[in-house]
């Protein structure tokens, strides 16, 4: 199998003796994705898949679910008792000194730290040193197929169109003097998702005034604020097509229910937009020159703009996240705040660029669009760009 051969080359380059994939009850979705096990397929027993740097893989599966890895190459070894499991895993690892698993030292990159501590202890008991698979894992879990890339582009475009219609709807409702709440706008967007045959894992964020300064504010029907003329409004929406393997689009826009923003709103917007552009320029430059770019570097470039403007303490999250079939994916994140992500940005991957400045009790500006790096290295901004605060009157 080509994937196994590719893994073995990564192992050779990384001076590793093998990669041990493990799952129990869906606890390691990254291993399941690599092993092409559907999220809908029920598994209730532990299994291991050992890919040595040289030679044939070994499948270690419970007798009750002995078929779970039949679609992958390798010798099948079954276990029934915990004693036989230890015997089979120990036998497979015999002679290995340094192996990779979905583990992150000190949990530095939580997105790849899927194997529990007890299992790591178990594996270490056979005399091996456990290293992180993060350096090569995203080549298999975060790189999109051509069809997936196209699905992302369509989803991001649809989100841009839907939020554009939402602004028009808000403007109309306010002009008519009809009662309007954050929750009502959220539900309007969800209705448009259904019409466009899109799905999401969580309703959109619609935050007015001080609520927009809470990055993960959630409007609820009982407590959401009313929208009125003069308000500052933030809308964050993400969705994907209703098909297997579809990839999310994820964007954020801001507007005011006024003829023009305040001076402070305009100042903050311009800083955030300048920071967003700085990040995109870095990505485009590195890929144009075919040079390595790590996630933390994008975060630093963006964050520097906001710090130099005097608002560094109000940028309270990472610059961007990997986007795949999950809106927060397993690939490199644009982050040197919450974690130091040294993983490289890869051709064929997608991620968001979404700097923000949040002034507690006042308002917050977050601007988000996505970047899709085509397989040949071309960098495409998806989901549109916002160059000015939207004015609704």
Straight-line N-to-C gap: 60 Å
Helicity level: 25-40%
The backbone outline, from C-alpha atoms, is elongated
Beta-strand percent range: 15-25%
Q: In terms of structural class, how would the helical and strand content be classed?
A: alpha/beta
Backbone CA Rg: 24 Å
Strand elements, count: 16
What's the tally of helices? Answer: 9
Low-confidence stretches: none
Largest sheet: 6 strands, mixed
Enumerate the strands of the largest sheet in spatial order, edge to edge or round the barrel: 4-3-2-1-5-6
Element order: H for helix, E for strand:
HEHEEEHEHEHHHEEEEHHEEEEEE
Average of per-residue pLDDT values? 97
Quaternary state of the chains = single chain
Q: What is the fold's blueprint, element by element?
A:
Elements: H1 2-13, E1 18-23, H2 29-34, E2 47-52, E3 58-62, E4 75-79, H3 82-92, E5 98-101, H4 117-124, E6 129-132, H5 134-141, H6 146-176, H7 182-195, E7 198-199, E8 205-208, E9 232-241, E10 249-256, H8 263-288, H9 295-308, E11 350-353, E12 356-359, E13 363-366, E14 369-373, E15 379-382, E16 390-391
Parallel strand pairs: 1-5, 3-4, 5-6, 10-16
Antiparallel strand pairs: 1-2, 2-3, 7-9, 8-9, 9-10, 11-14, 12-13, 14-15
Helix pairs in contact: 6-7, 8-9
